[in-house]
Amino acid sequence: MTHRAPAPADVAAAPGHWRPRYHITGVRNWINDPNGPIHLDGRYHLFFQANPHAPAWGPPHWGHVSSPDLVHWTRHRTALAPENGRPDADGCWSGCLRIIDGRPVIYYTGVVGEDDDRVESVCRARGSADLLTWEKDPAGPLLPGPPTELGSGFHRDPFLWQDGSRWQLLLGSGTTAGERHGQVLRYESPDGSQWRYRGVFFAAPRRIDGLDLGELWECPQLVASGSSTALVVSCQVPDAPRPLMHAVGFVGSIVDGRFQGAPAGLLDHGDVFYAPALTTDAAGRTLLWGWAQEVVPPSTQATMGHVGALTVPRRLTVGDGRLEQEPVPELAALRLAPVGAADAPVEPALELAGAPVDDGWTVTDDVARLRIRAADSGGSLVVEVADPVGGERAFTLRRAAGNQVRVFVDGSLVEVFSDGAALTTRTYWARPRVRVSAPRRSDLRVWQLDGAVVR
Ligand code: FRU
After folding, report:
1. Where is the Glycosyl hydrolase family 32 N-terminal domain (predicted)?
2. With 8 labelled, which of 66, 174, 186, 411 sits at a CA distance of 20 to 30 A?
3. pTM of the predicted structure, to 2 decimals
């Protein structure tokens, strides 16, 4: 037997078993926000911010995957890439996809320049019927930058909806005077081409009831449900350390072109979820994907083959001033073999389901550990993570005692669902295999999930 000392590069490289398999990641390197989800001609299409060239945020491209069933995904060629000399020379930032006069159209944020000199315009690309080929508008940006009266350069992430015979377009922005806070701007158009600024659609102070809403809102998303309307924004403090802050929902209604609503809380109770994108599918369900960030130091990130992932598709429901989420039922098709207590350690591509009690459930490789347990006589669920990379963190979800909890583990990515609440975090395993244990095993079912569904 020969022993070969690993080359220094091997020693430093982040382990491949951190990469999620049944979640969407990039082919390699970096991804962030989900963009432009749409259910068209029987397929779900999902785009995302990608830097194919480095394991760090960089001039964003639009990556593209599609699926017939929300489980099996096919990768497609890059939909949009930054181009020198164009209004997206430094990035094709987030936006949405709509069908306008029968043609697919991407509205996205074109970016030129950096920091205080950055110009954020609204750009457009028209697509082929199969959404695989995109042609940018030769006429340049639809909206070259923020309205002059705004005083803020933040003018990003177009979200459109049709309101009778007119199109409405929302953009994320923020104020610059006094205590800064987020705001959403509205534009209106008869045809999707000629836009008129119609003012601030919604704004809220920096903090409401202890909830920090940041200085800038990104990726506004709107969904109508019965008589209520929900507005989701991603709250940020520019230049704050990553992970970025959180996504917040408001529930209310639109009155005279402005949204009026009250906070409906965080969309996710973990530490890595951001920039969710929403769509309504042919069955009328509101689906949502978020960006799952990483909790690694930059030196570790620089060695990773894949950085960032999209969450599983979640169904969002709006009711009674609340936003609820659950994993789509289609995900049951990921289940392969059940995993028993006496089984050998398995790859971290797992689903756990049941009603945890005080001792809870533990997933561990003997170095890193994820624990899910009930507390407060079952009235809350505590999720504890301890690993050498992300450190020790604990999160709490309120719940009704005895209700079912579902946990998805996929490489380092962890998603927990309980009573309509969601929690996304990371556990950076030290070893490629983990063991699941629960003192009261009858409360827990475990499945190995299919890690070969994104091709
Ligand atoms: C949110 C965000 C968006 C922007 C994109 C750039 O994470 O900052 O506002 O369009 O990422 O990648």
Report:
1. 23-327
2. 411
3. 0.96
